[in-house]
Amino acid sequence: xxxxxxxxxxxxxxxxxxxxxxxxxxxxxxxxxxxxxxxxxxxxxxxxxxxxxxxxxxxxxxxxxxxxxxxxxxxxxxxxxxxxxxxxxxxxxxxxxxxxxxxxxxxxxxxxxxxxxxxxxxxxxxxxxxxxxxxxxxxxxxxxxxxxxxxxxxxxxxxxxxxxxxxxxxxxxxxxxxxxxxxxxxxxxxxxxxxxxxxxxxxxxxxxxxxxxxxxxxxxxxxxxxxxxxxxxxxxxxxxxxxxxxxxxxxxxxxxxxxxxxxxxxxxxxxxxxxxxxxxxxxxxxxxxxxxxxxxxxxxxxxxxxxxxxxxxxxxxxxxxxxxxxxxxxxxxxxxxxxxxxxxxxxxxxxxxxxxxxxxxxxxxxxxxxxxxxxxxxxxxxxxxxxxxxxxxxxxxxxxxxxxxxxxxxxxxxxxxxxxxxxxxxxxxxxxxxxxx
Amino acid sequence: xxxxxxxxxxxxxxxxxxxxxxxxxxxxxxxxxxxxxxxxxxxxxxxxxxxxxxxxxxxxxxxxxxxxxxxxxxxxxxxxxxxxxxxxxxxxxxxxxxxxxxxxxxxxxxxxxxxxxxxxxxxxxxxxxxxxxxxxxxxxxxxxxxxxxxxxxxxxxxxxxxxxxxxxxxxxxxxxxxxxxxxxxxxxxxxxxxxxxxxxxxxxxxxxxxxxxxxxxxxxxxxxxxxxxxxxxxxxxxxxxxxxxxxxxxxxxxxxxxxxxxxxxxxxxxxxxxxxxxxxxxxxxxxxxxxxxxxxxxxxxxxxxxxxxxxxxxxxxxxxxxxxxxxxxxxxxxxxxxxxxxxxxxxxxxxxxxxxxxxxxxxxxxxxxxxxxxxxxxxxxxxxxxxxxxxxxxxxxxxxxxxxxxxxxxxxxxxxxxxxxxxxxxxxxxxxxxxxx
Lengths: 437, 437
Known about the structure:
Two copies of one chain form a homodimer.
Chain A: H1 2-11, E1 16-20, H2 26-35, E2 39-43, H3 47-54, H4 65-73, E3 77-80, E4 91-94, H5 109-119, E5 127-130, H6 138-147, E6 160-163, E7 182-186, H7 189-199, E8 206-209, H8 212-243, H9 247-254, H10 278-288, H11 294-320, E9 329-333, H12 348-358, E10 362-366, E11 372-374, E12 380-382, H13 388-393, E13 396-399, H14 408-414, E14 417-420, E15 433-435
Parallel strand pairs in A: 1-2, 1-4, 2-3, 4-5, 5-6, 7-8, 9-10, 9-13, 13-14, 14-15
Antiparallel strand pairs in A: 6-7, 11-12
Helix pairs in contact in A: 1-7, 5-6, 8-10, 8-11, 11-12
C-alpha cells in the first residue's frame, strides 16, 4: 500500500524533496530536481548559504545564479536551516561531507548529525537516500537503526532507505547530475525501486544495484582507482627522474595507444575533498576485518610523500646554483588543489609552503583564484602580484598549480629558476632554468 | 649523405626489410611492410616456421594464410633461418622474446643473440630497430656497442639505431599494426627521423619521442598500468569477498561512470607473455638504481598470489559440502591464459592444477583450445570431454578460463559445485552451487 502511494507521488512529481547539505553536491542535485518540476527544500546549517538561495543566488561555480533565481521565483527551490521544516517532505537526500579526522579515521559526525536531524521528523512513507561517500555498511549500520528500528518503522514497507553515491566532478563542462548515470542501492527491493524512481526525475539513467553495500563500494572503487593510478604515475615520475627520462613525454606517447590505457599525470601531491580521502574509508573498514588494503595504503603513502619529493627537487635545483633552501626567497605559484578553481582543501601547496618555511626559506605565493590562505600554524598569507620584481628577486619559483591564466612567457622571461611540478611550461622557453618533477 | 640515401630508399619503398623473430609480433609486422610493397625477409631460428612461410602458410591466428600466400607469391615475403641472408637488407627489425629467468630477472639472451647475429652482417647505412619489450637503456647499452662502436660505425651518420615498442594485442579484431600508433625513439635525431620514415610505410601514425629510453619506458608504462590495475581489482575482489559484496556487480556499476574510470576485472591470476613479465623489467632496472618499484612489486605479489586465493575458495566451498581437497575429484575448466586462445604461457591454470594435486586432489581438465598441456613436474595432461558423467563425478569444477564456447547451462545442470573465477556463469542457473572469487 505504502509502496504504491509513494511510487505514484514520485511518478506524477507531486513529491516534495528535501536535501540535507547544500554544498557542491546538494545544490546541483536540488536544481536538477526543481528543473524536473518537483518542489525542493534545501537544508543547510550555514545561514549564509540559505539566505543566498532564498534571495535566488548561487554560491557554487557549476550552478548559475540565473538558474537558482528562476527556480526560486517559480517556488520550486527554497532553503532552510532547520530540520523541522523537512517534516512535510516525501523524500530526503543526505549530501553532507565525510572528511577524515587528523588520525586518518573517518569523521562520521556529519552523517550522524544529519541522520539524527532527519530522525526528528521521520514519518511513514518517507524515502531517504544517502549520497555521502562512506565506508561499506554505513547505510544499514547507521541509517537503518536511527531512522527505522528506533521508530518501529519497517524498512521496505513503512519507510524506504537507499544509498546513491554522488559523482559530481566540480568544473566538468560535459557531465552533471542529469547526464551522469546514477547508481542506486536499496536496503530492500522496494527501497531500490522507489529510490530509482525518485532519481529518474533528475537523472537520465539510473543503475540499480543489489544492495546499499554494493552502491557504497561503487564510489570507493571509482575513487580508489584514481588514487592508485595517481600514485602509480607519481612513482613513475620518481623512477623516470632516476632514469633521466621525461615522464610527461612518456605518458603522452603511451596515451597514443588506442586501447587498454588511460593517462594519469604526476604532480606535487593530491588535493581536494575526494581522491585523497575516500579510499581511506575503505581501508579503515577493511582494517576492522583484519585486512590491510595494500594498494590504498601504498597510493596514500606515495601521494602524501610528493610534497617532500618536491622539496628535494627544489633543494637539488638550488644546490646547482650553490644555494641552500635556508635563506632563499621562494615564490609558490598556485595554492588551489587543482587548476582554475579556488579550493585549497588538502592542497599540497600548503604542505610545500610549510616544509620550505621549516627549512628556512622566505616564502610568498601567487594565486589568481585564492586571495588569501590560512597556513599551517595559523598565519594567513596573501597572494602577491606576479611582477617582474617579485620574480626577479626570487631564488626559485615552485609551480604547484597550473592555472591556465598564469602567463608562462612572462614567468620564464623574469624568473631565474622554476621547479615546474605540472609540466606547465611545456612549449615555452625563456631565461629561467626549468626543472621538472 | 648516408642519411639522405637511406631516407630516399625508404620513401620510394625500394628498401629491403629484414625481421628477426617471426612470432606474433614479427609476422604481422612483416605482412604489413610487404603489403606496403617493401621486400621483406623474415628470419627465425625455428625451421618449421620458416618452411611454412616459404610455402605461403601462416601459423599466427591474427594473420590469415591467404594473405601470407599472396604476399609470398608476389615475392614480397620470404623467410630464412640464417642471419647471413640478412646481409643485403637496408633495415632490420628485431622482434625477439624477452622472458624472465626463474629468478624473475630479465632473460636478455634472445636480444643478445639477435644483436650478435645482426652484428655479423652489419654494414654502413643499415637501419636497426628493436621492438622487444625491455628495460630502459637496452638500446644504448646493448645494441649501440655491438652494432656500431665495435665496427667503428658512427650512430646517426653511418648507421641508424632506434627502439620502437611492439603494441600487438593478439586476437584484437580492431587494432593491428596498421592502425595502432607506432612510438619511435632514436639514438640520434637522424635515427628517429629515419626509423619514423621506415615505420610510416606500415603504420598510419608514427609518434616520435626524444630518446630510445623514452620509447622503452612507454611500453613499460603501458603494461605496468595494466598489471597494477589488475592487481588492484584482484585486491578489490578479496576485499569485496570479506565485505559480502559481489565485486563484478560493483565493477559493472562503476563502469557506468562516463569519465575518469576504466574497468578491469579480477581473475585467478595473470597469464601470457606481457603483463606479468614486462613490469619486472622496469623494477629490475630500478633496483640497480637503488629504488624499489613499489607498485610493480605489490601488483606482482597480489597477482601471483591469486592461484593460492582460488585454492582457498575451493577449500572453503568443498568444506561447506563436508569435503576436503584431499580425495576430491576436481575438473579445471580452461587452461589457456585468456579466453578463446590456445596459449598456456604463464597460465594460472597450471599453478592451480599443481596446487590442487599437491593438496591431494585428483585433477583433470577440459579446454576446447588446448588438447594437451605439460604440467609442473613434467607430466603431460590431456583435455577431457566435458560430459555429464565427468561433471557428475566431480566434487568441484574450478572455472579458470572463460572460453565463450563452453556450454554454461550444461555445466550448471550437471555439476555439483562450481568455483567460478571469471563470473562466467553470470545470468545462468542450474542445480550446481556456484561460488565466486
